[in-house]
């Protein structure tokens, strides 16, 4: 398995990831994308693309706040493991030991561990979940308890299978309140957020910071135009879905979950959280631990969480072995956060695929080139040149490897449907800039100089 990329290769990856993200924010018509990467024990990359408010023309910044939704489950799990380390509860306690209002109910017999791993068989969002469409308020404590007490809320026996539940995590928030003697929001703010000194992170919508939130937008799946969606307080489900954050603070939070960092938890507790317990689908992957998603990108095992909030879709993933965390936050209900996040790890893998060679002079070929058929990026990763189509779902799949040959690049990789064995021939200007590239799909030009006419017409016909 390849090691972490060296400093120069990581720099190359992040430089290209920046250009690739900017392209895909525009190409996929996502209003805004905010991204951060933690690597080499620091924030190695942070950027924002697009708009925080389309109607007002507000550019998205790295400081805008996003609702990171089900990332909240990771904070809830962290808080419960902190309380367990302090001897104030056990993960195998029945929930009713702490939330006494549900003694004698089916869900009162579930354990904290059952709910943390989504193995409690609990109803997902209740039978009246229109709060997700802002038609009603999110449930308060009394409404949540009413749902939990209903016999139908125990949909399956405990430990029958993985069954995701926001109601179950709402109930865990009540456990924390009972044990800590304070509100869930206050406890996680003090025990996690403030302990890490993160000001761009918090457990619930903060009306005092209303102007800092990126506006959320509807999907293009059912309409030609997006419309803005108001922010809403998540009530007693804040322990399941209330958190907000910036991408840089999210990856800073994840850095405290890396081995050897004892700011929040011992390594033993972190191993419990990160251990994959349940398959979430028919295949072997992905899986779920204690408040954490565990998945594979290529052969790398990653942990983290996604978040789905009305108007915001987010994802963050961590490679603990390489000590790399990536967070992508989007302000659209169909934002492609998973693709945008996983691509960072795929590019890192590509840059780590072989020992770094002599890359001197290769950067003169790099750039983004366009013709009628699309766009091609020539990219330097790990000391090797690749041709990548930035519009494909996985830019690192079947990489087209290029080898220098004077002022040309010979294609030595990729599928047989490509131009294997052929060359891209470059024309350079007097200052060494690329003027054009000719390959099997015709002539391409640097994208900054590429324009389309009002109509593409036949320009010449040979008799």
Description:
The structure is a single chain. The chain has 463 residues and is α+β, with helices and mostly antiparallel strands. The chain folds into two domains: 1-353, DD-peptidase/beta-lactamase superfamily (Beta-lactamase), CATH 3.40.710; 362-449, Lipocalin (Beta Barrel). Helix content is 24%, strand content 25%. The protein has ten helices and 22 strands. The strands form four sheets. A nine-stranded antiparallel sheet has the order 3-2-1-14-13-12-11-10-9, sandwiched between helices. It has an eight-stranded antiparallel β-barrel with strand order 15-16-17-18-19-20-21-22. Strands 4-8-5 form a three-stranded antiparallel sheet. Helix 2 runs parallel beside helix 5 (166-180) and helix 4 packs across helix 5 (166-180). The N and C termini lie far apart (58 Å).
What secondary-structure arrangement, pairings included, does this model have?
Blueprint: H1 7-27, E1 32-39, E2 42-53, E3 58-59, E4 66-69, H2 72-85, H3 112-116, H4 141-149, H5 166-180, H6 184-196, E5 201-202, E6 216-217, E7 228-229, H7 238-241, E8 243-245, H8 247-255, H9 267-274, E9 278-279, E10 287-288, E11 293-297, E12 300-309, E13 312-319, E14 324-330, H10 337-351, E15 367-371, E16 374-381, E17 384-388, E18 400-405, E19 408-411, E20 423-428, E21 434-439, E22 442-446
Antiparallel strand pairs: 1-2, 1-14, 2-3, 4-8, 5-8, 6-7, 9-10, 10-11, 11-12, 12-13, 13-14, 15-16, 15-22, 16-17, 17-18, 18-19, 19-20, 20-21, 21-22
